């Protein structure tokens, strides 16, 4: 009885803290405001340079002559692996089932302004990266907050982020994802969670032994496949419901600014709830402003921070504008959003079943959940490891990998009622110091971005030309960190 009471009390405490952190007077305005400020200071870089960024990241793939541990494309897929996860399937369904169809608009807004935030944090991740005692490149908010913002405040922000990131790596990046994989395999194929836990323990451990190079190789092959399978299934559903798409889009936009009336099992929602759920689940999905993707970006082989910043920016576009939109449209066009929040966990699967049949629809979603969640575990293992090294020293790398791998088994075999609340809260605590840092360092980013893009607007400059530019402009950054 005592244990139950403590668990309930803990749930209430976490819920209250999560509600405050993600309230409309705290993190939400800071998140959106930072994105708007950066969009203005960078002159709408996410709109002006999206085509160039997509070409450089997905077609060019490698930045010839750049120093780093992995290619630009591998850095992009590692970050995508970490962000395209359960949030793109269950998180979107949760946002719509509580906030109504209008929540999708606020997820889009979060993604669009978040592209400027993602660019900025990736730029800074590369700009202030360093080599550790093993010769590997390390960067991210835990580095640029301290070295970019001089004095005790910068150090405080860096340590705040470091601690929050380590905690978050076991929440959003491990327990929640492992639980989703086990649940999906058990529901669809009858696989025991213990078996899933053992297999994941072995697979994750095998990949992590190879470090960021192994993670980059796996994600570069894995991520395009998993996103492709999910999008093909979604396109089939939408094709089967072509006539409902215009009405669904009208409902999404109207409800974002007027609220949603109760219908079916849906209890109804006002504008504030749609905004809150859309932004919270949006950042859970694309992680813009959290600073996590900057850690992967810092390891990329690149000749200038602007180049990797633009590549990293496309991650938010792919995650939110493409994958999240697909999930949201499938849910709204098939009408399953009316079932209410009690069915949010199965809502996306129900939508796919409604669109392409029970057998194929459920299987596609189950396989996608497994792929998305497993890839998220790999990406977040690297994020957590880099912050563990920052907190305890380079020796902490191996112990962290061992603990992280064991926790994968725990997540797969344990009921985690508080997992989503815990993950939401940890996300917010990571984002807070990073967003403050992005605002403080925005002037440096804007100046150096303008200077470089005036010199190389299409990102086709050769390494020797970039080096000459750096020398001529007396820029202290060098590609080897």
UniProtKB/TrEMBL annotation:
Key words of the record: Cell membrane, Membrane, Symport, Transmembrane, Transmembrane helix, Transport
Segments crossing the lipid bilayer: 20-40, 79-99, 105-128, 149-170, 190-209, 221-242, 248-275, 317-337, 360-383, 395-413, 425-446
Topology of this chain in the membrane: Multi-pass membrane protein
Annotated GO MF terms: amino acid:sodium symporter activity
Gene Ontology CC: plasma membrane
Alphabetical list of InterPro entries matching this protein: Na/Ala_symport
Record flagged with keyword Electron transport: no
Entry's localization field: Cell membrane
Family, similarity comment: Belongs to the alanine or glycine:cation symporter (AGCS) (TC 2.A.25) family.
Protein name (record): Sodium:alanine symporter family protein
Biological source species: Corynebacterium falsenii
């Amino acid at each position: 009885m005592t244990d139950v009471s403590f668990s309930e009390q803990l749930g209430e405490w976490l819920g209250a803290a999560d509600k405050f952190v993600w309230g409309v007077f705290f993190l939400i305005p800071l998140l959106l405001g930072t994105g708007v400020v950066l969009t203005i200071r960078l002159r709408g870089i996410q709109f002006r340079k999206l085509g160039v960024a997509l070409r450089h990241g997905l077609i060019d793939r490698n930045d010839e002559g750049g120093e780093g541990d992995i290619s630009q494309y591998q850095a992009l897929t590692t970050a995508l692996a970490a962000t395209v996860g359960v949030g793109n399937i269950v998180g979107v369904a949760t946002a719509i089932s509580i906030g109504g169809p209008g929540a999708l608009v606020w997820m889009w807004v979060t993604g669009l302004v978040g592209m400027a935030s993602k660019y900025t944090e990736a730029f800074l991740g590369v700009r202030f990266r360093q080599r550790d005692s093993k010769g590997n490149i390390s960067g991210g908010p835990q580095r640029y907050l301290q070295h970019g913002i001089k004095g005790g405040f910068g150090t405080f922000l860096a340590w705040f982020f470091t601690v929050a990131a380590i905690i978050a790596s076991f929440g959003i990046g491990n327990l929640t994802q492992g639980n989703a994989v086990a649940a999906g395999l058990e529901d669809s194929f009858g696989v025991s969670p213990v078996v899933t836990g053992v297999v994941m323990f072995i697979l994750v451990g095998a990949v992590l032994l190879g470090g960021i190079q192994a993670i980059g190789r796996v994600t570069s092959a894995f991520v395009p496949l998993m996103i492709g399978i999910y999008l093909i299934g979604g396109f089939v559903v939408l094709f089967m419901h072509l006539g409902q798409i215009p009405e669904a889009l009208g409902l999404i936009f109207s409800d974002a600014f007027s609220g949603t009336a109760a219908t079916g099992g849906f209890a109804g929602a006002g504008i504030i709830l749609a905004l809150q759920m859309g932004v919270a689940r949006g950042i859970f999905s694309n992680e813009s402003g959290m600073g996590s993707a900057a850690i992967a970006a810092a390891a990329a082989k690149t000749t200038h921070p602007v180049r990797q910043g633009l590549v990293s920016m496309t991650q938010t576009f792919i995650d939110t504008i493409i994958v999240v939109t697909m999930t949201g449209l499938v849910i709204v066009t098939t009408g399953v959003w009316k079932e209410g929040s009690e069915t949010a966990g199965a809502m996306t699967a129900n939508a796919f079943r409604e669109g392409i049949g029970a057998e194929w629809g459920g299987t596609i979603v189950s396989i996608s959940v497994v792929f998305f969640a497993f890839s998220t575990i790999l990406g977040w293992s690297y994020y957590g490891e880099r912050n563990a090294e920052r907190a305890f020293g380079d020796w902490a790398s191996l112990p962290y990998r061992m603990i992280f791998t064991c926790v994968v088994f725990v997540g797969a075999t344990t009921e985690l009622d508080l997992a989503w609340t815990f993950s939401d809260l940890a996300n917010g605590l990571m984002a807070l110091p990073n967003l403050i840092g992005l605002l403080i360092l925005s002037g440096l980013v804007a100046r150096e971005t303008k200077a470089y893009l005036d010199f190389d607007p299409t990102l086709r400059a050769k390494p020797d030309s970039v080096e000459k530019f750096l020398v001529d402009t007396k820029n202290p950054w060098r590609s080897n960190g």
